[in-house]
Amino acid sequence: MFYRRAIRPALFGVGRDAETIHERVLGMLASVSRSPTLTAALAAASRLGQPASDTLAREVCGLRFPNPIGLAAGFDKNAVAVPALVALGFGFVEIGTVTYHAQSGNPRPRLFRLTSDEALVNRMGFNNQGAAAVAARLARMPKLPVPLGISLGKSKITPLDEALDDYLQSLDLLYPYGDYFAVNISSPNTPGLRALHERDRLDALLAALAARLRYRAANDGRAAPKPLFVKVAPDLDDAALDEVVAVCLDREASGLIAVNTTVSRDGLSAGVPQALRAEQGGLSGRPLRERALSVVRRLHARAGDRLPIIGCGGIFTGEDARRMLDAGAVLVQLYTSFIYEGPGIARRIVRDLS
Ligand SMILES: Cc1cc2nc3c(=O)[nH]c(=O)nc-3n(C[C@H](O)[C@H](O)[C@H](O)COP(=O)(O)O)c2cc1C
Predict the structure, then answer these.
(1) Can you give the residue range of the structural domain that contains 199?
(2) pTM greater than 0.85
(3) In total, how many domains does the chain have?
(4) Domain CATH code at residue 20
(5) Fewest C-beta in 10 Å: which of 135, 193, 221, 228?
(6) For ligand 1, is residue 262 a contact (CB within 6 Å)?
């Protein structure tokens, strides 16, 4: 637990803005990613003492995942560090969320650590370089040994009623580079975005995206369209979750990602200062785990095997991942535990699971 004892205290030191640290760490991973030699060295160091194991490999939606532990969207929004992240042992990486227009996001500070509860609150607001810049970077990236997911979101300046074209334009630019696409309708930090969970809006959005993926597949001579996942919010009630499942089945979405961050502050300990609790934004990490599990159980009960689920929210240990898989998920993603547990988290969970 060298990371927790020595590195984390230095990174989390008083007075250091959480986002500044994030940028530094991402910058280091980006430097590694630019050098195939350093990337190979990182992979070798990260594998030390941990023999590669194929026992957890699986196929989902026609894609082969060497292990079921993925890095969730939001960590590498602009795809600057993907090879280094893969070298750390993730079985898949989801980049983004990417919007059609480049945007700077909300004013800083916008990322807060609730250290006593191993949680984060963020209101980043989809800061990213835009679909064209991210596509140009992905075009230069070497081929990856794991699936790459691309999360798509709505640009802030685009009115909700024009969201569909905004998503389609991003999809067109990024299409060649993603192994699967995730429609993000569940960030709490873009005003109005979550209204896209409503039946008619979601129906129109998925119909258009699925049609575009079918069209591109036909053009490319692919046997099947690239998979399309829908990422849902944890703040929906059962009726709303059931409706999302119904629309996804109708419109032939490939699967679900559950869940994004929550606007609820339930389950925080008394150790979290009132000022932090009151920060606006989405909560992630340990306090989200039980809600994420119950959402996955509900979605799985409704959809069965027709919609594979990527479970996400508060996964820190092999036991957490096992419970998520038992709840009905076929793959798991994490973000917050990467911050709290460090770069060995994916390999540790894989080892504990196997
Ligand atoms: C700082 C931060 C930024 C995030 N940005 C995105 C994003 O751009 N798109 C997205 O779909 N989810 C985003 N998320 C949500 C995560 O992908 C994940 O769904 C959520 O944090 C729950 O998982 P966790 O408890 O393992 O962190 C973000 C989370 C954090 C903490």
Answers:
(1) 2-353
(2) yes
(3) 1
(4) 3.20.20.70
(5) 221
(6) no
Tens-place pLDDT, residues 212-257: 999 999 999 999 999 999 999 999 999 999 999 999 999 989 999 9
Give the integer Cα–Cα distance in Å for 59 and 81: 25
Atom number of ligand 1 nearest to Cα 96: 8
pLDDT tens digits along 274-318: 999 999 999 999 999 999 999 999 999 999 999 999 999 999 999
Helix (H) or strand (E) holding 232: strand 228-232
Q: Give dist(CA 202, CA 113) in Å, integer.
A: 33
Which tens digit of pLDDT belongs to each residue from 5-45? 778 887 887 557 899 999 999 999 999 999 999 999 999 98
Ligand 1 centroid–CA 219 distance in Å is 33
